[in-house]
Amino acid sequence: MSRLRGFATLAIAAAGLWLLWSQYLDLARLSWWYNSTNVLQAAPVNPDYDLTTLPWQTVHPRIFELREGALTLTTSDEPYGYQAFATIRANGAHTAGIKFDADVERGGVTIGIQQGGEWIAINSSQSTGPFSGLNSALLGFRRSLMVTIANRNAAGESRVTIKSLRLYLRR
Amino acid sequence: MTSLSRIGRTAIAGEFVLAVAVIIYAGMHDVKGVFVGAPPGLAAHVAGTCEAAESESTCHVTVTELSQGRYRVATDAPATLLTVAFEAPAVMTKAHHLLVSVPSPTTLQWHHASHGNAAAIEPIKLPGSFARTAIPLPAHDAITAISFAPAMPAPIVVAELGLFEDTRGLLSDERPLFQFIPPQRYHGTLVPRAVMRLCFFTIIAAFFVPASLLRRFNPFILAVVCFSLCLLDLAVLYSPYTARDLRASYASGPMQEIAGSNLNGALWEATRLLHGQGLTVADGLVSWAKMPGYGLFASAAALLFGARTFVDLATATVLLQVLFYSGALGFFTWAAGRLWRPPVVWTLGLLLAMLPKQLGYTQVDSIIAPIALLILATLCLRLAAREEDRPVARIDLVLHLLFAVWFLMRPDVLPGWAIVSLILHARDPRRLLIPIALAAAIGIGWAGYKMRYTGEFVPTTSTTGASLLCGLWEVPSRFPWVCSDESYFAWVSAHTPFEQKSQAASNIVVREVFKFWLTYPGHVIVMVYNKMMRCVGGDLWPGIPTDLQQSVFQIVGRGSLILLFLTTIALAAATGYQRARTLLLAWPLFLNAPLFWIMQTSEGRYYGAVGVAILVAAVPLLFDPDFYRALLERHRATAAVLVGVSVLAIGAWPLHDWLLRNDAFHYWTPFLDASRSSWGVVR
Predict the structure, then answer these.
(1) Predicted-assembly ipTM surpassing the 0.85 threshold
(2) Same structural domain for residues A151 and A68?
(3) How far is A21 from chain B (nearest CA, A)?
(4) How many other C-beta atoms are found inside a 10 Å radius of the C-beta of residue B337?
(5) Is the CB of A10 less than 8 angstroms away from the CB of B15?
(6) I need a surface site. Which of B278, B376, B427, B463 has the fewest CB within 10 A?
(7) A26 shares its domain with A98
(8) B205 part of contact set with chain A, CB < 8 Å
(9) Cα(B598)–Cα(B536) distance, rounded to whole angstroms?
(10) Are residue A102 and residue A68 in the same domain, yes or no?
(11) Cα(B257)–Cα(B259) distance, integer angstroms
(12) C-beta of residue A168 within 8 angstroms of C-beta of residue A53
């Protein structure tokens, strides 16, 4: 019984340690995020990748047309289905930042960065009109990351023109 | 204790210390932001002129110092232009940034040394809504003045204006950690939520900390933690970075209201008292609605912390309120340590410190909760002394002095004071002379003082009639009347020959209200029931909750928490476990709250004492194993209470709604003719 009590005490101690550490970590990560997006806002002109240099692969969009530096995308009917992604090597970067400027003509769209199948930076618009954003994320240990565009329209097809999309990798 | 336990307990104790240190640091970090509002500005002498909107009218500018080098500048009439000149060229050369915030969109124009008149520099559009803006000053030419032009002619207000060498501490606080998180999110959400989680962790951890250490340090640490939590709340409500700091709020709010208003009455009393003009709010005018205590409290704040300006006085009063609350909590935890185990005292003290408070308001209701805490602390000492068979004469004296302090602040304590005194001194009625003498001394003293100004002998306030009348219209009904001073004064002027604020007028209104009660007994029942339900539904914890409390209330509603505590009190009373102690500690619930169910409730701001009392009465029971044993032993009483509470929890609000909708009952007039009542009109 006393051994059980001892384990319970240790469990509470561990929970306390986790609470203290997680509170610190959450705030530290958020502070880092604000800092990195501030840096992104004043980012240099030359990104590591842009709309034209990203190696896009399509899933099954109705239209995927890259012309004169802009991407016109008409999605499939699948409400939240992935439409296009670009897989790139991290090359030792610890931070990825994304900055984009789009115009949603119909439905909604999600633009973000994925690593290991998980979204690590995500911006979504569920309404039509201008849709700009910047986001950043700490990269994990994996060697690659994906810039992904997905549909975000429960009713079906969406249509968006992405006027610019820049990806910055910081080492 | 096994070595595993020992290691675990040591780790938990360390984490407890760390968590408490973080909680204290988080609050202490906000001291300057809350009480000063901005770093010291440059000492440029500020003078203003304005152009009236109408050519024949005059326009004057008022400059109020908020803090060193930071001012509020306003016109007293609609104007098209407000010009502020900076009359210190030497200082101007050091100035690099202009701090400005305005309530409505305004255009800022520059005047500089090489151009006498309008600016060659592009004007700046200020966004309004009190958003703080730090504007870099043009580097090439010294600014001599600035002008503010509103979009439409209106009284122009510049809520904050100052010159600074740099922007450090103006738009965000200076933090060693997490400095990139915007202040609104950091102070408004993240810190309160993190601190709340740490507080709850310490409640668990306290049961593993050595009891002897906790007993010794509980009063001091909880007082400091309470001070810190008070500051966290104030930093959210009066953040200089997101809204208006305390000083700017008072300068643009209560200071602009007529002398004697809710939030400035005591400040005027204190100012005039310290200038030898008596405890008055204006020449020959003594408050008709207040006891003298809170004016004296504000005077004490001025003496303790200095009050060069009215804004300083408001800030000093708020600071003293925070210190008083924290000190009262420290005293309470020391006294509570005589009755309950240290971790239980820690839990209770922390919950009391976490309650929503009204400490940012310079009105008497803000300090009723700490006074109640002091009374409850003294009752704890008395209960402990009784259990140990020690004499209680001195404790009784202190107890009645504290009741007297409450009476000096607000007269609503009288029924509770009288009944508690009768219960405590049932076996020694001579001791009743203490409360009688104290109440008489205060009442007669105040009545005698006021008589010089009013010609009436009134030992308390002259607002019984106004409060009873107002209380009638605070519940939903088809009566067309509203609760306001203006409607009360209008009725008095129309129906009595007496002065509006007189006791004679109040007496007539009281009689008329009693007649109305008899005319519409259904409305009285609806009124009492509605106010009682609102009270136990959450109003008994008055104050503006911040994320420190909201993050808890979003998980467990206020009403559910209060129901838990009321059920606990009911179980103790029904099973007889610690019955006398529990009921005595919960006395404000039974002897103070019901007063406001028939009088003005003012959205619950008078319930401060009730909120702390139910915690003090209920929380220790929840941590007492013998309480649960008693519940099992007296299972019939327990079951009866639980069934009763369940029925109430399920049926009380539907019954309330049914009563409100049932016009036949609500407007039933069985005894008197409605047309003979002054207010017997139904829409």
Answers:
(1) yes
(2) yes
(3) 11
(4) 21
(5) no
(6) B427
(7) no
(8) yes
(9) 15
(10) yes
(11) 6
(12) no
Chain B residue with minimum CA distance to A28? B178
A54 with A127, same domain?
Answer: yes
Structure tokens at B113: 């040394």
Contact assignment for B11 to A13 by CB distance below 8 Å: yes
pLDDT at B56: 81
CATH number of the domain encompassing residue A101: 2.60.120.260
| A124–chain B nearest CA distance, Å | 21
Q: What is the mean pLDDT of residues B413-426?
A: 98
- The whole-angstrom separation of Cα B159 and Cα B64 is 10
- CB nearest B204 (choices: A12, A17, A32): A12
Which residue in chain B is spatially nearest to A6 when comparing CA positions?
A: B5
pLDDT at B33 (0 to 100): 93
Give residue B116's pLDDT.
Answer: 52
pLDDT digits over B599-654, tens only?
Answer: 999 999 999 999 999 999 999 999 999 999 999 999 999 999 999 999 999 999 99
Domain that holds residue A11: 1-42
- The Cβ of residue A44 has, within 10 Å, a number of other Cβ atoms equal to 8
Helix count and strand count (H, E) for chain A: 1, 11
B13 touches chain A (CB under 8 A): no
Checking B650-657 for CB contacts under 8 A at 24+ apart, the result is: B652/B533, B653/B533, B655/B529, B656/B529, B656/B530, B656/B533
Looking at the structure, tell me whether residues A71 and A149 fall in a common domain: yes
Total domains in the fold of chain A: 2
Do A77 and A14 sit in the same domain of this protein?
Answer: no
Q: How many degrees, rounded to 5, is the angle at CA A107 between CA A106 and CA A112? A: 110
Quick one: closest CA in B to A2, which residue?
Answer: B2
CA distance A120 to chain B (A): 19
Mean pLDDT for the stretch of residues B649-678: 94
The one-letter amino acid code at B316 reads A
- Pairwise CB contact (< 8 Å): B11 & A30: no
Task: Identify all chain B residues contacting A30, using CB atoms and an 8 Å cutoff.
Answer: 178, 181, 190
Of B7, B15, B181, the CB nearest to A16: B15
Nearest to B284 by CA among B296, B302, B272: B272
Instruction: Name all domains of chain B by residue range, CATH numbers in brackets.
Output: 46-164 (2.60.120), 467-674 (no CATH)
Is B8 within 8 Å of A28 when comparing Cβ atoms? no
Interface probe for A, chosen from B185, B187, B201 (most Cβ of A below 10 Å), is: B201
| pLDDT digit string, tens, across residues B562-577 | 999 999 999 999 999 9
Using the beta-carbon criterion (under 8 Å), do A13 and B3 form an inter-chain contact? no
Interface test with B, best of A1, A3, A12, A35 (most B CBs within 10 A): A12
Chain A residues whose beta carbon lies within 8 Å of the beta carbon of residue B19: 16, 20
B3 Cβ under 8 Å from any chain A Cβ: yes
Q: Please indicate, yes or no, whether residues A82 and A3 belong to a single structural domain of this protein.
A: no
Quick check: A16 and B12 CB within 8 A? yes
**pLDDT tens digits for range B507-555:** 999 999 999 999 999 999 999 999 999 999 999 999 989 999 998 998 8
Q: What tens digit of pLDDT does each residue of B36-52 get? A: 999 999 988 888 999 99
Q: Comparing C-alpha atoms, which of B238, B264, B243 is closest to residue B253?
A: B264
Number of residues written out for chain B: 683
A:B CB pairs within 8 Å: 80
pLDDT tens for B72-113 read: 999 999 999 999 998 777 777 888 999 999 999 899 998 877
Full pLDDT tens readout for chain A, 171 residues: 778 888 999 999 999 999 999 999 989 988 988 888 787 777 666 889 999 999 999 998 999 999 988 999 999 999 999 999 999 998 888 888 899 999 999 999 999 999 988 898 899 998 899 999 888 888 877 789 999 999 999 999 999 999 999 998 877
Beta-carbon separation of B197 and A31 below 8 A: no
Least CA distance to B187: which residue of chain A?
A: A27
Say yes or no: A36 and A56 in one domain.
no
Contact between A99 and A169 under an 8 Å Cβ cutoff? The reply is no
